Amino acid sequence: MHFQWYPGHMTKAKRMMQENIKLIDLVIELVDARVPMSSRNPEIDELGKNKARLILLNKSDLAEDRWNDAWAEYFKAKGFSVVKVNSKKGGGIKSIQGVIQEACKEKIERDRKRGILNRPVRAMVVGIPNVGKSTFINALAGKACTKTGNKPGVTKGKQWIRLNKNVELLDTPGILWPKFEDQTVGLRLAFIGSIKDEILQKEELALDMIGFLQKNYAGVLAEKYGIDESGDAFTCLKNIAESRHCLVRGNELDTDKAAMLFIDDFRNGRLGKLTLEFPQDYD
Ligand code: GDP
């Protein structure tokens, strides 16, 4: 999904979020498990204050398991409920309904004391582009869902998906804008495809990732491409171009093409499970 953010978009997204958030008890925030901090927009904490909060480490299949666990602990220590999920394959989805009840137990208790019984918990999925919001909603709602509203001829109102007698989910996710003041965060958002590649040169992106892998995942490049990965990042990229026969005009190495191929390999998990940021680097 490629969509650029301008001030007008941000204002509109924020306004919609403020409207929808009034209707709900629980914010289900999706982040990309490979970059759990960079794929958040911290304004959600202000928007979602006084709501129950659940963070889903989505695409957990693409990140390293020990770091998924470390990140889950990190967010739990800050008071969030957390679940590792793979929305594409359905991993972790079954536990969600139980976790929702647990995350909302204070609200359910408050209702009970006021004599309100069986009012379903209302939840909404939020996250920046490409973290897997639609995939998650489909995985959670599955086929069993019964939508409310949506009568022909009637202005389309809010659509709620009834997950069970206790939980209703807003059918459209809240889109948070990707936020980056800092170049490192911008690069990470480009790696995961949440911001348009053209903003940054593909080659610059690839060189940064190569440097990161050399430092944190020694051996991955050598193994994947059958190359010597010991040189500087640009030499490595040329080696990838050579090993993958990326050539222009017959014999010159095409490093742009190699960069594209390499970024694509990363995005699709073909370099293995990789986590790009680590909890110890935050507070
Ligand atoms: P949205 O923009 O947040 O609604 O994201 P989408 O639901 O459109 O998903 C973006 C891409 O990520 C799609 O290609 C999905 O198939 C993929 N995707 C979503 N969830 C997962 C996941 O848990 N694991 C993997 N490997 N891919 C996922």
Please provide a written account of the structure.
It is built from 11 helices and 10 strands. With 283 residues, the chain is an alpha/beta fold. The strands form 2 sheets. Strands 1, 2, 3, 4, 5, 6, 7 and 8 form an 8-stranded mixed β-sheet that branches. Strand 1, helix 2 (43-47) and strand 2 (52-58) form a beta-alpha-beta unit. Helix 8 packs across helix 10 (233-243). The two termini are 31 Å apart. Residues 150-155 have low confidence and may be disordered. The site of guanosine-5'-diphosphate has 17 residues, from helix 6. Required for a late step of 50S ribosomal subunit assembly. Has GTPase activity. Pfam families: MMR_HSR1. InterPro entries: G_CP_dom, GTP-bd, GTP-bd_ortho_bundle_sf, GTP-bd_ribosome_bgen, GTPase_MTG1, P-loop_NTPase.
